[in-house]
Amino acid sequence: MGLPALLMENIHVYIDGYHVLRGLNLEVIHGEYTIILGPSGCGKTTLLRTIAGLQPTSSGRIVIDGEDVTNKPPWERKVSLLHQIPGLLPHLTIEENIILACTKRARLSKLDAKNIAREIADQLEISDQLHKKPVQLSGGQLQRAALAVALAIQPTLLLLDEPLSHVDKPLADKLSLLLKKIHREYKATIIHVTHDQDEALSLSEKLAVMLRGKIVATDTPTNLYRCPPSIEVAEFLGLNIIHPSILDLQDDNYIVIPPEEIKISVEKPSKQRLYIEAILESYKREKGRILLLLRTRSKIENLVRVYIDPSSYREIAKHNKLYLVLTEDTIKCRLKPA
Ligand SMILES: Nc1ncnc2c1ncn2[C@@H]1O[C@H](COP(=O)(O)OP(=O)(O)O)[C@@H](O)[C@H]1O
Ligand SMILES: [Mg+2]
After folding, report:
1. Is the whole model's pTM more than 0.85, yes or no?
2. Residue 124 to residues 127, 305, 328: CA-CA distances in angstroms?
């Protein structure tokens, strides 16, 4: 498998006395598209700045492509960081911005730089914008231009700080296709941070969950969503955490079920089916899902909150009896109580 593109070991970072990164560990494989998903304020931007060398660490080790860069300045790391708000030099044209990155940071000749600028601009479909200054570009063009500058140095790591969060939905869809294309064609190792779960699940090859300055889980998005390693991560991903007594199971572990895998029925399922009988106390829409508050027959956890997918929702009156229908496969993920 070779050396990882990035290895971070036990990283601690303090900003103005505030402990932002708290013993963070992360390994990223060459050529992989990794997304780091975490709530606002958990330290994602700080993490990217630390990898790029813009934020000093108080302890820990950072290795890029086999080389210990912990104490190296930003310009000696083959890393490009694309900021949340694209930063381009305003007095230069887009082409001059790209050429400057090539000649100053990648130390290419002016001629090579010009050729690379043309090639990247062509790939990102901004060839007709090269002669313009940043202020003359639309939001989407500006994102692409900043991406062109980031790619120009042929970085080992391309770091993207919430690249889709400041654009509207159609543009975000276009940009995410573009990111996939860059990943494929440049075989770029990408670390993309976001607080948006749908974006993370749909775009990543590897998903890392970050909470309170630490990476708390890493796996493929499918594995993580189907069975995360802890109750804390399951809660963060909005999964249902069901007490075993509700299913009359003799087990100490909680059962973790994604909202999409729970079907609602108002008729009693056949005896062979696995189901939870409950009375609907209340319901509301929350984060694109429907949250049901249910009263069950379990003596241990009588009142439960269950998320379901809107597609499986049917008009159900309050205080009516309903059945949550499950399959044997649905209850395979069991986790120890926190
Ligand atoms: N310059 C700063 N001074 C004080 N606190 C900061 C500074 N920068 C970041 N922080 C704090 O560090 C934490 C992590 O910030 P950040 O890395 O920006 O998180 P994220 O990108 O995940 O939203 C936040 O609680 C923030 O308030
Ligand atoms: Mg941030």
Report:
1. yes
2. 8, 46, 47
